[in-house]
Structure formats: structure tokens, C-alpha cells
Design brief:
Rossmann fold, binds S-adenosylmethionine, 267 residues, globular, 10 strands, three-stranded antiparallel beta sheet, 10 helices, Chemotaxis Receptor Methyltransferase Cher, domain 1, alpha/beta
């Protein structure tokens, strides 16, 4: 029999997740019941009540991220929303490279990087653009996610490759791994730093960012949570720096960023 989720526990759980992780589950009661039933039974609980009690009181962060993994999607892939990469290559990179001719440092953040395809993809575009000059530049990409599970996979960096990669990239930027899969080459991998980070937290990284990718992450957040995060991104962006969000997303009209095009913004 499927365990039941009482009104009280549903409200407690969704308020807890909303407050601490920004994820809005108010319309997701059915999803919670269907996705979590097996997990709670596997842990020896026969109903939601003691499980919810445990989650709300445990200090074990990994229990919570396991729950978030079930309720959100980590779906991502190389060359996703390629229009952004075209804009990065044709407009953002020429602009940033000129701006940083002296310090030769670019600060880029992939916020909500999931299993790593997005930051590695950025790293490949950087390498392609800078060519032989890449070694003179510090272009290390910060890549963060709340889920340790996806970060572990990202650090491994082994993938099945799609046909959509630009010609020659498979040979240049990957090395064959087991089972017909491919590992990201060291030159690309060493340019990405993975770290756990909850986007609900204050942003206190050492540097401000020239470019933030936060694509297909805020879809889970309600409007006030989104607006507050965008404000924090803005404060963490250099003047003239960029924010890219998912193609299906938008910012509030009163967002501090200037809109350059679909899901593309500048400070
Ligand atoms: C659908 S993936 C997006 C991956 C990539 N940016 C892309 O567009 O393909 C969304 C990621 O956001 C992460 N995420 C959700 N809520 C988060 C939060 N509060 N803090 C940090 N990451 C979060 C999830 O763990 C997930 O890996």
C-alpha cells in the first residue's frame, strides 16, 4: 500500500524545503508521494509522518540532498541552449577578453551546474577562443550545485557524447573511457572548480563574476526567491558583466539587469 502524506506533513515539508532551498513544492504533492514512497519504505518507514519528522530534525545534509535529488531534475546535456554558447563566443568573449587584456583573468560561474556538462562546455569554448594564448590566461570556472551526487559525477567527467558537439571537439577535448564513453580531457577538466553551494546562501566568493550561467535552476523557485537571488547575482557581478538564464525563464520587469536578448542580461 502506498504510504500517505497528511496535509500537515505536506505543509511542513514543503515549507521547510522552500525556506532552506528555495524550491517551491506547493503544487507537487503528487510528485512527492510518487517519488518518495519507495525511498521511505526502503528506509524502514511505513508512513510519511516519521520520515518527515526525521528529515526536519536531521543535521545530516546528505539526507536532504538525497530528497532534493528525487524532487528536482538534474537533467542537462552538452550544447544545451546553443544560442547562449554562440552569444558567448561571438559577443561576450571578445568583449571580456578586450576588457581583461591587462590582468588576463576571467571570472565565470556555472551556478546549478548539475553533472558538469555546462561548465565543461564553457571551458571548451574558452579554450577554442583563446587557442595558443589560453595558457597566459586565468579562466578557471567556478561550478556549483547543491547536490553532492551530481558534483561527484561532474568531477569524474565521463559521458556519452551527443552528435551535436562541434566538429573535432571529441578528438580535441575528450579521451576514450570504458563502455564507449568519453572522459573530459585534463586541459578542460583542470579549468573547472566544482564546489557544493546552496543558492539560498549569501554569495561570498572572493571575486565578482564577469559572467554567471544560472540556467534551468530558478524554474523551481517562486518569484520572491528568484528576485532575491537575482539581486544577489547582480551584487556579485562586475559592471558590464553578464547573466544567462534558461531559454524558458525570464526575470521580473524590475530586475536590476539590462536585457540584451532572450534570457541574456547585462549589468
Ligand atoms: C536542471 S539542472 C540545470 C543544469 C544546467 N545548468 C543546465 O541548464 O543544463 C538544475 C540544477 O539545479 C540544482 N539546484 C536546485 N536548487 C538548488 C539550490 N537551492 N542551490 C544550488 N543548486 C540547486 C539542482 O541540483 C540541479 O542540478
Amino acid at each position: 500500500m502506498q504510504p500517505t502524506l497528511s496535509d500537515r506533513d505536506f505543509i511542513r515539508l514543503s515549507q521547510f524545503i522552500q525556506k532552506n532551498y528555495g524550491i517551491n513544492l506547493t503544487q507537487k504533492r503528487q510528485l512527492i508521494t510518487s517519488r518518495l514512497s519507495t525511498s521511505i519504505q526502503a528506509r524502514g518507514y511505513d508512513d510519511f509522518a516519521p520520515f518527515v519528522e526525521h528529515l526536519l530534525t536531521t543535521k545530516d545534509q546528505s539526507e536532504i540532498t538525497l530528497l532534493l535529488d528525487k524532487l528536482t531534475t538534474n537533467y542537462t546535456f552538452f550544447m544545451r541552449e546553443k544560442g547562449h554558447f554562440d552569444f558567448f563566443q561571438n559577443t561576450i568573449l571578445p568583449n571580456l577578453v578586450e576588457k581583461h587584456q591587462k590582468d588576463k583573468t576571467l571570472a565565470i560561474w556555472s551556478a546549478g551546474c548539475s553533472t558538469g556538462e555546462e561548465p565543461y562546455n564553457i571551458s571548451m569554448y574558452l579554450m577554442d577562443y583563446l587557442g595558443a594564448k589560453a595558457s597566459q590566461w586565468d579562466t578557471r570556472i567556478l561550478a556549483t550545485d547543491i547536490s553532492n551526487r551530481v558534483l561527484e559525477a561532474a568531477k569524474k567527467g565521463v559521458y556519452e557524447l551527443p552528435d551535436t558537439l562541434p566538429a573535432g571537439w571529441k578528438q580535441k577535448y575528450f579521451v576514450p573511457a570504458e563502455d564507449g564513453r568519453f572522459a573530459v580531457a585534463p586541459v578542460i577538466r583542470n579549468n573547472v572548480i566544482f564546489q557544493p553551494f546552496n543558492l539560498m546562501s549569501p554569495i561570498r566568493f572572493q571575486r565578482k563574476f564577469d559572467l554567471i550561467f544560472c540556467r534551468n535552476v530558478m524554474i523551481y523557485f517562486d518569484q520572491p526567491t528568484k528576485d532575491a537571488l537575482v539581486r544577489r547575482f547582480y551584487d556579485a557581478t562586475t559592471p558590464g558583466g553578464y547573466l544567462l538564464i534558461g531559454f524558458s525563464e525570464n526575470l521580473s520587469l524590475n530586475s536590476p539587469y539590462r536585457r540584451l536578448g532572450p534570457s541574456t542580461f547585462q549589468k
